Amino acid sequence: MTHGRPAIDRRRTLALLTSLPLLGRAGGAMAASPRLIPPASAQPAPAFPEGVTILVAGPDGGRTDAWTRVIVPALSQALPPETLIRRIATGGPDGVTGANQFDARSAPDGQTVLLVPGLAAIAWLVGDPRAQFDAGHWVPVLAGATSGVVVARAGPSAFGPGARPRLAVSTLTGAELPALLGIDLLGAQVVPVFDLVEPVQARNALQQGAVDAVYVSGHKVPERVAALAPAGGQPVFSLGGRDAAGALVRDPLFPDLPNLAEMRAGLVGQRLSGPLYDAWCATATANQLDFGLMLPQLTPAAKVALWRRAGAQAAVAPDMQAAAAALSVRPLGSPAATASIACHATALLELRRWLATRFNWHPT
């Protein structure tokens, strides 16, 4: 007996055949899709494939360059692994030439940072024509701050309204600038006594009564202030310091000494404010800046964040802490600690006008 084959539904066959190319395309897409997903073992692109450069604003082996011996190893531990760090030193000890090169030649890509002393920022603040940069645009990532203390033979009354204290100075726009301006803001008429460049000269002048006050700043300030005691010098007030929010506080190395704002309140019962006080804040911060590690303006936010994390870690590195403590320098990873250098135009104008009217000083 023979059995007939079941009839094939033509419409079902045509539908099946028609769908085959579509299934092929779908299968091809499914097979290709895994190639669009990177394998789990793929590594992200390095943040600095060509390494980074620290442009030191100062001579090779100079005071600023000496900090690279601890800064570079500390950053090596804090930056992404395998980041190559190069160092180039250039210009004079005040940092102006190096800062000019940084502003003119560095792309804002996070690959070049400037290691600069605060003296360069002071040159910009007073309008020194050599300073062809804007220190207010630098983006700080790490700094080393020193103390600034006014030492006098008499007490606070020597700096009250109407007094004419004589202050030992090297130049009007040198390290003593914030002390000169600060004393004027207290209401006194400060009288600069020039050509006392070396600390021993200032100490002898204080002891002999040739000056009434000496400003002590830079390295090892506590020891140098103590050394003035036999000459009759006693600390009267400090420039203070900045907390993490950027507010003026007492100097942590002189916690019992009033800062300038407290001194003003104690003498005349008034708070300091206004453009000239803003200018003083900028000169004080710049003067206390033993070194600053800066990025250029317009550096991408991601690179700024990376550098600031590295700066914060470098500031607390054991070798950095030890080297800084030996010199009475405070490593700072907080950008707020140096933010007051960014002085607004009105304050800059007031500072330069004050120098011109009080001392007949003009940029040359």
Written description of the protein model:
The protein has 364 residues and is α/β, with parallel strands linked by helices. The N terminus is likely disordered. Strand 10 and strand 11 form a beta hairpin. The protein is globular and about 65 Å long. The chain has 13 helices and 13 strands. The longest helix has 23 residues. Strands 2-1-3-12-4-13 form a six-stranded mixed beta sheet. A five-stranded mixed beta sheet has the order 7-6-8-5-9, with helices on one face. Strands 10-11 form a two-stranded antiparallel ribbon.
Tally of individual helices: 13
Strand proportion, as a percent range, falls in: 15-25%
Could you tell me the radius of gyration in angstroms?
31 Å
Question: Going across the major beta sheet, what is the strand order?
Answer: 2-1-3-12-4-13
Question: Percent helix among the residues?
Answer: 25-40%
Following the backbone from N to C, one meets helices and strands in this order, namely HEHHEHEHEEEHEHEHEEEHHEHHEH
Low-confidence stretches: 1-38
Q: What would you call the shape? A: globular
Q: Kindly, what is the distance between the CA atoms of the first and last residues, rounded to a whole number of angstroms? A: 124 Å
The multimeric state of the shown protein is single chain
Task: Give the rounded overall mean pLDDT.
Answer: 87
Structural class: alpha/beta
Largest sheet: 6 strands, mixed
* Strand runs, count: 13
